[in-house]
Each structure stands twice: as C-alpha cells, then as structure tokens.
Amino acid sequence: MRVLITGGGGFLGHQLAQELLRLGQFRGRALSELILLDRAFGRELAGSGLRRVCGDVARPGWVREAAQGPVDVIFHLASMVSGECEEDFDAALRVNLDGGREVFAAARASGPDTVLVFASSIACYGGLDMSLPMDDFTKHLPQTTYGMTKAMGEMLVNDHSRKGHFDGRSVRLPTVVIRPGRPNAAASSWASGMFREPLNGEDCRLPISVDQPHPMTDDLTVVQSLLACAQLPAEALGVDRALVLPAHRVTPREAMQAVKAVGARLGIRLGRWDLQPDARIAAIVARWPQQVDGARAMALGMPQPMALEAIVERFVRTFGVLAPPSC
Ligand SMILES: NC(=O)c1ccc[n+]([C@@H]2O[C@H](COP(=O)([O-])OP(=O)(O)OC[C@H]3O[C@@H](n4cnc5c(N)ncnc54)[C@H](O)[C@@H]3O)[C@@H](O)[C@H]2O)c1
Prior knowledge:
Blueprint: E1 2-6, H1 11-23, E2 25-26, E3 29-30, E4 33-38, E5 50-54, H2 62-67, E6 73-76, H3 82-87, H4 89-110, E7 115-121, E8 133-134, H5 145-162, E9 167-173, E10 175-177, H6 189-199, E11 204-206, E12 214-218, H7 219-231, H8 234-237, E13 242-244, E14 248-250, H9 252-266, E15 273-275, H10 279-286, E16 291-292, H11 295-299, H12 308-319
Parallel strand pairs: 1-4, 1-6, 4-5, 6-7, 7-9, 8-16, 9-13, 10-12, 11-15
Antiparallel strand pairs: 2-3, 12-14
Helix pairs in contact: 1-7, 4-5, 6-9, 9-12
The structure holds nicotinamide-adenine-dinucleotide (NAD).
C-alpha cells in the first residue's frame, strides 16, 4: 500500500501521516510507503517507509515525479488558506486550482483504482441565508476566492471520477480547532486563537462578535473522517462524491465557557479575551455558513466531533500549554 499526502507538513497532513504510520496498514494492506509532499516540513516525523519531498504542488509534473509510480491512495491537502487567497487571487488560482489539477493528473496517471480524497471546505457555501444549516444538497455559491477554488476542486473530483480516471472523494471540512502554534493567515484563525491563546496565558484578540456562530470540528475527528472516506466503497457515494462533515455550531461566547471550565478543572491561569472587531475578517466570516448538517457523512460512517470541552481538554493534554498552573 503506497499512500501520498500533499500538504503533508501541515496541521492536518502531519497528524494524518502520524496516524497512518501508527496503524502501519491501510485498507487491510501493509503500508509499504508513505510519501509526504509540501513546500516545507517544520516538525519531525519518523517511520518505516516514510519519504518527505519538498516542492511546489503547482509545478507541472512535480507531483507525478515525486510519486515515483502508481500509488493506492492520495490525500490532497496542500492549499493556500482563506486569508491568503483573498489577498492574492492569482496565487490562489495557481496553487489551489492549478495545483489541484496537477494532483488530479497524478492520480489519473496512477490508474482508475487510485482513491483520492480532496480536503474541501464549507467555504464552498455562500450567498444564501447563512443561518440555515447547509448540507450536501445546498447550492455552491462561494463568496471568497478560497471557497471558489474548493468548489472547483470538488467539481473536478466528481468529473474525473465520472470519467473513471480515478476514484475521487471530497470531504468538506468545517473549521478545525484547536490548531497549535501561532495564528495563521486563515480568516478563521481567531477560531483556534480564542481557545489557544487564553489557555497559553496570553490575551486573545477577537475580531468578530461573541455571538457569531461558526461550524467547528476537531483535528482528531477530521483525521478519522479522511481515513474513513478513503475506505468507503465507491458505490456508497454514487455520483455525488462530496460530503460535508458534521460540526458543532459554536459562538465565541460558548468557546469562552468551555475554556473557562477546562481551565478551572486543570488549574490553568487563563489569558483574557479582548474584543477588537475587524471589519475585513467579520465580512469574510459573515459570508460563511453558521451551521452545517453532516447527516449524510454520518450515515456513511464518518464520526461526530468530540464535545467542545473534550476538544479543549485534549488540546491541553496533547499540545501542552505555556501558562503556569494557577495555585
Ligand atoms: N484547518 C481547517 O480549519 C480547515 C478547514 C477547511 C478546509 N481545510 C483544508 O484542509 C487542508 C489542510 O488544512 P490544514 O489546516 O492542515 O492547513 P495547513 O496550512 O496547515 O496545511 C496546508 C499545507 O499545504 C502546504 N502548501 C501550500 N501551498 C503549497 C504548494 N504550492 N506546494 C506544496 N505545498 C503547499 C503548506 O505548506 C501547508 O503545510 C487544506 O486543504 C485546507 O484548505 C482546513
């Protein structure tokens, strides 16, 4: 079993790789090679059959060269994030769209049985009444360049699959919390920051209203969902190969309550939430869904996210916090 992950140095790609190495097998076959592609790799990772290759996913022919022959499963996670795409339309098309086409061409060259899972986003939705739950049957009307590239990626995955080029699937991810490290250029960066910074004893700048709902899930659930999606029989998906994952509808007010509860339980001295509205971020977030309905994904075996306090507690136990315990 040869598995390739684009964006394998990123937040989710790294954890997906860790989990595959831990399992040592996938779809009932021993993992012989795990190939991670990314622009750069920040974190250490070791394991039998692991090969990491640095490069640009949009460079013509590079993904295919790096694969060095047919692969059984491709997870396509490499992407520019939402804030970057909004700032640089041309780069967004190059990396997310042309890069996607390069990955899909590599999957096609690999053969019709190659399973490809594309990490899409709920930013595909937009332009409707965003307070309504969005599901697999909601029209795509993305209102950001990032969401547009993800919607186009889903269409390409569907059509390549219809043509029998490869066996593609798209998983439409809600915002994934809690991302460790520093804030990134995603317009949803505040979603992780409002948990992470106070847990680290730092003050957190909140650019949106405390009552703005947003769909959120956790990294562990997403990794399990990507793996589950790759294992679904093609017949279970039919012609509609994109699944929106289930998510909690979370407001910053609810996030604060969860952080305070876990902080009190674990004796963490928390930083504060500093409300500083940012019109640019608030405008992007207002064009994203407030809630999603992942019933189809769940019926196909994708897990539900952990409870919010459990997500916070796992983050503290997995990634640690910088703040000294209160006493
Ligand atoms: N994390 C979330 O909240 C979230 C939500 C919705 C969708 N997604 C999607 O899930 C996927 C993984 O997300 P993540 O949180 O791990 O993001 P991430 O930014 O941590 O990882 C993406 C990786 O892609 C790499 N990359 C970017 N441009 C590249 C290029 N030209 N060539 C090669 N590599 C390149 C980056 O270096 C990075 O390591 C992405 O496709 C993202 O759009 C994530």
